[in-house]
Amino acid sequence: MNCHPQIYEGKAKILYATDDPEILLAYFKDDATAFNAQKRGTIVGKGEINCQIAAHLFRSIESQGIATHYIDCPAVNEMRVKAVRIIPIEVVVRNIAAGSLCQQTEIGLGTVLPQPLVEFFYKNDRLGDPLLTRDRLLLMDLATPAQLEILHSKAVAVNTILQNFFQQCGITLVDFKIEFGVDGQQQILLADEISPDSCRLWLTGEPDPDLRVLDKDRFRRDLGNIEDAYQQVLVRVLGVKE
Fold it and tell me: Which domains, from first to last, does the chain contain?
């Protein structure tokens, strides 16, 4: 039982302090939200599944030279992480058109993009996490020009690593959202989580547009079999050697 003070609770995780001020404990919840928390529910076992998937992927990413906040997992739904100041920018990388990209443009669902599309969103629930231009981000002083270049380059590198990884799993990485934080040494680390909550994942080769979905879109779109889809991702991810 965790006896340390809670310092933050988000939609999917609770952060607790530890005896070391440079280390936090992240507890992964089964809570599910969509459409900026307008839709709420529970995905049984999601916390354990996402924690294990994120840990495996963080270790894989670190092995490729990208620093993360991951330390270890003292329990199946708990992750020890390095304390960072989260940069309030959600970085989205898209390989295939889906979601808001299709809703806001005339690009058809499933269109393979000629190159990865990197987008920056302001991490602010009250404003609905809006898509922002580089100049707006700089105007709002959310990051420095050098930090934005680092976020962009790291996001592209993470995308390459994840695409190759998921290909081994028989899964197509459609798009994903990541966050970064700054540690006490001013190093930018990949933070938050990488899981079916933050990625669009399609079963490779499945032609049915509903059956192929292995991510939170099953919850957003009421497709059913959510737990089964998350479990399938876990089994496939853990089947790839780190």
Answer: 6-82 (3.30.200.20), 85-226 (3.30.470.20)
